[in-house]
């Protein structure tokens, strides 16, 4: 599989919630921009689009507070696979 | 039994030192809860007349629970507001309630004050209500006089309204007493149970936890909302508290399975899982059954207007079917299917509107006699008693169990919330420059889509909707059209809209 880019991740996030500026917001979870339903939608999308399973241990606010953090998580999990 | 507080009185006598309620940081015994409720009730009774509505603006906690019960003990009715709602919608709810006070706690006091700016209401702090009533024995005589009765309203919970104004459903002490008595009996809930409360207090699923605990002496463990974004935290809490009963929304159960909660840790003390709110996806149920093979699972059904639930169905061991019945009525409820001529439908497989009678039927929509009389009517079959017309369609299966089919109108369930698409359309059309707005729900992808015509820019409309609607009602996609597709009758063609991407 090709490398997953930051832009791929932003595109995925915009499909879940289109009106967030993912380039600047760094408190997506802590600032309550995303709720538990959005997290579910993101985990499902990561699984569908990138064929990556995110385990419960990785679903913590620090991994989901920004598009950059989500991108790093996805890249790390893709490498571990 | 006249009111729900009698359960608390009895528990404070019989098991004073048992834990009644705990949240993430705080806990109280039945004796402590009884004392706190009494102090708050004295303050409330001195300031406001019985029958007044006390609004609460805070996330759930042991203290907020004491406040709600304290208001009830003073003969008032409580209504918990969802703190995530935008100010405009909260103001609409306050207009409906016309509360005597808005009570908050230390964490939400400033938010509450800000939200109430420009309204006639002031914030009142739970801690000062409690302090004000401590040791004030003079008020005890007053408390005797304001004891609520079975027919008095206990709480008001809000639900989406298709005309753009949320509806406040008022439920009496008697309805809660009758429903909860059968509920704890059917599911064998006892003082040994530890109930894991998922639902926020503005949702009536929480009524089963709060009063199920008070009625039996079980302890109630409140799970903070944010734990439902962090599965590890949620599973640790369930395990550490050794919970035995989960009466949860289907969406919350799917959260655990989707995010791999059971792969991390299994709360194997759970013996009973009761779910409601949406149709349970079989794939998720099977994961729960696999994780908790000895637990009992039950599907329960009913809208807020019938006091939590009117039917239940216990999932048989080894069940692996795809369609779950909603089952048979609780003993206090009459459940019937009516056709369009209001005739009783009894033939298995034949479709009708689900209508509910019995002592669970709510008092009505608060301060709204018109919508109350539309939905709450005299039972047309025998001409006696009141029924609530749910707007849900169903049929009886061969075994005599009720099967849920769907809605007769544009009401949907999205992210665990009951939503009238008409409310979203109505709010969108309030913005000058929107000439027509139509909302559709893509059930497969769980997305709300809004189509509109008019010169307003999409970003402006989305910003307007965010100001007026809670986040779960803001459309996931908003699309501007030059004109609405019409069918041959000149009405908006919803199926043509559904084809648009």
What can you see in these coordinates?
The complex is a heterodimer of chains A (81) and B (501). The mean pLDDT of chain A is 89. Chain A contains 4 helices and no strands. Chain A is an all-alpha fold and 81 residues long. By secondary structure, chain B is an alpha/beta fold. Chain B folds into 3 domains: 5-314, ANL, N-terminal domain (Rossmann fold); 333-407, Roll (Luciferase, domain 3); 419-499, GMP Synthetase, Chain A, domain 3 (2-Layer Sandwich). Chain B is 33% helix and 26% strand. Chain B is built from 17 helices and 26 strands. In chain B, the strands form 6 sheets. In chain B, strands 2-1-10-9-11-12-13-14-15 form a 9-stranded mixed β-sheet. In chain B, strands 16, 17, 19, 20 and 21 form a 5-stranded antiparallel β-sheet that branches. The radius of gyration of chain B is 23 Å and the shape is globular. The mean pLDDT of chain B is 94. Chains A and B meet through α2 of A and α10, α11 and α12 of B.
